[in-house]
TrEMBL record:
Pfam families attached to this UniProt entry: SBP_bac_3
Family (UniProt): Belongs to the bacterial solute-binding protein 3 family.
UniProt KW keywords: Signal
Protein name: ABC transporter, substrate-binding protein, family 3
Predominant subcellular localization, coarse grouping: other
Natural source organism: Anaerofustis stercorihominis DSM 17244
Keyword Signal: yes
Subcellular location: Cell envelope
Length: 278
């Protein structure tokens, strides 16, 4: 989330647990003095179609959990934060091309991403869940996806999860949408029977639309959310991790989480990765 989200080839190796460390010894590693795309500015890539993590509100302002979180990081670093919007399927290519320093956009940690990106310690709990229409069929297991129309955001780990179960013989009609907003519009309108998405997104839509949506199946995967950088910018991730600890200890993370989700999803994060085939 995304979102847990899928990536092309960028690089990272990582150790499970609260410490996700990249490989060392790369000749491409950037020095601590050359970590940023702009002097005194932290440039952050986002996909602003993913409420409540990052989205454009009715006033045209980009808001959400990750926006406040990124600004808090910038404040601790003494740097202005600049956001660059990207479609999700292109966001990591932009990172690799140095269009921004970090992706702070609900990046779910999974084994593939541990091999492809430099990731921070997780800062938010997350998993893949099924959201059903309250007035429709309550889909309570992966097996019950059979014969249904299922909505996902394209190029996300939700998409990956659904494609995995399709490959295992559970036959359903997978509908891919460019943004999560479109997937939930489809669910509300009856174009799909359910949506597979990140817990953080599903909880938000259910909370905001208690008469329309309900979470009917959870923990298809476990994918805590982290800050992402390309491998050659591991020095920046090494600066981010102590800041995450500070933001947790001083209550900033809890405050943002309760404001956005109505609960604290930033403490006691389960960092044991669970994939769809485990």
């Amino acid at each position: 989330m995304k979102k847990g989200k899928k990536i092309a080839a960028i690089v990272l190796t990582s150790v499970l647990g609260f410490s996700l460390l990249s490989g060392c010894g790369s000749k491409d590693t950037v020095s601590a003095e050359a970590q940023f795309t702009k002097d005194k500015t932290l440039v952050v890539g986002i996909d602003n179609t993913y409420p409540p993590m990052e989205y454009v509100d009715k006033n045209g302002k980009t808001v959400g959990f990750d926006i406040e979180f990124a600004k808090a990081i910038g404040e601790k670093m003494g740097r202005k934060v600049e956001f660059v919007n990207s479609s999700w399927d292109a966001i990591f290519a932009g990172l690799d091309a140095d269009k921004y320093d970090l992706v702070i956009s609900s990046v779910g940690v999974n084994k593939d991403r541990q091999e492809q990106l430099a990731l921070s310690n997780p800062y938010l709990a997350n998993q893949q869940v099924i959201i059903s229409s309250k007035s429709g069929k309550q889909i309570k297991s992966v097996e019950e996806l059979a014969g249904k129309k299922v909505g996902v955001q394209v190029s996300t780990t939700s998409n990956d999860t659904c494609n995995y179960y399709l490959s295992k013989g559970i036959d359903f009609d997978l509908r891919e949408y460019d943004g999560m907003t479109e997937a939930f519009v489809a669910l509300e309108g009856g174009s799909v029977d359910c949506v597979v998405t990140d817990l953080v997104v599903g909880e938000y839509y259910v909370h905001k639309n208690t008469n329309k949506f309900v979470k009917t199946c959870d923990k298809l995967t476990n994918e805590p959310i982290a800050v992402a950088a390309k491998k050659s910018n591991q020095a920046l991730i090494d600066k981010i991790n102590p800041i995450l600890e500070e933001l947790s200890k001083d209550g900033t993370m809890t405050k943002i989480s309760k404001k956005v989700f109505g609960k604290d999803l930033t403490q006691n994060i389960d960092t044991t990765l669970k994939g769809y085939d485990e």
